[in-house]
Amino acid sequence: MTLLPxxxxxxxxxxxxxxxVTSRNLVHLVxxxxxxxxxxxxxxxxxxxxxxxxxxxxKDLPVGTRTVDPVVQALTLTxxxxxxxxxxxxxxLALQAQKRHGTxxxxxxxxxxx
Amino acid sequence: MRALRLGLFLAGAAGLAGLLxxxxxxxxxxxxGRSVYASVVDRVALPERKAPNAxxxxxxxxxxxxxxxxxxxxxxxxxxxxxxxxxxxxxETAARRDxxxxxxxxxxxxLLAPFALVLGLYTIAHGHLTPGGxxxxxxxxxxxxxxxxxxxxxxxxDRIAPTSAWDAVEGAxxxxxxxxxxxxxxxxxxxLENVFPLGVRGALAAxxxxxxxxxxxxxxVAAAFVLLFREFLDQLRDEES
Lengths: 114, 241
Known about the structure:
By secondary structure, chain A is mostly helical. Chain A is 70% helix and 0% strand. Chain A contains four helices and no strands. Chain B has one domain. Chains A and B meet through helix 1, helix 2 and helix 3 of A and helix 1, helix 2, helix 3, helix 4 and helix 9 of B.
């Protein structure tokens, strides 16, 4: 079952996208997008995981100790920050949509002109 | 329309799921995957950079340029949110409606804020030694400030620390990152090269540019998050009018 963690990442991505496609509320849509984005954290950490290894912090460890991949952890950190930035911007846009058109339903917004 | 959209999605998702599963089969087995870069970073972090935390070494040294661009993304997002939300309340005549009115909650918030602040500063300062760094610590510092903003009186907070001050702090944080990068060039090296004295391992001021960049990122992230929260909390003003 070594494929299971990878499939978890794929499942998170697809279930998040399903939420985005079927969403009836822009705030809900932003949350679904966050779920889809979290699949990338899972995938990155899964790629860098090593059995019987410790965190790559050599404060009390000799150099050469078996550790998990620090590069993908740094990538995940970048990923989280970008996800927050995207969420904040989308939520601000949702707020403006509610203010100007009085609705958060993407289908109703599609009918709005100007 | 919805049925058509869902049908299209399901067909595409089924195809994507198949392709992903196909791709995963050829990846290194779970629990053994590890890039060549990981081995290099593990061997370089402590001996050549005096930074025990290999993750922070990647973020602020090996991939410093990526981190600079990542900060630019956060900077742009904060600016975008401000542009979208700030013009909404013209004149700002209505007083901000404080969400917290209970004295007990106010006192608890004020009591927790200094602890959160110290934890955040500790996380930034020890980023190259233990798990942490500018981004993680910056968010905790922002949480302490937001705690004061939410639990205290928003209008009084705005007089002491107006939005323009946070704008300046955020800009200074990002600017410091760029300037430290330029120090690499003036020292005859490459942009963001670690040219500062490395010091002794385990010291707060060791590891050259890593703690300096960590602090500048921490300051920029804290200010960006305070600005983001402020813009959203400021919307409470409109509800009343």
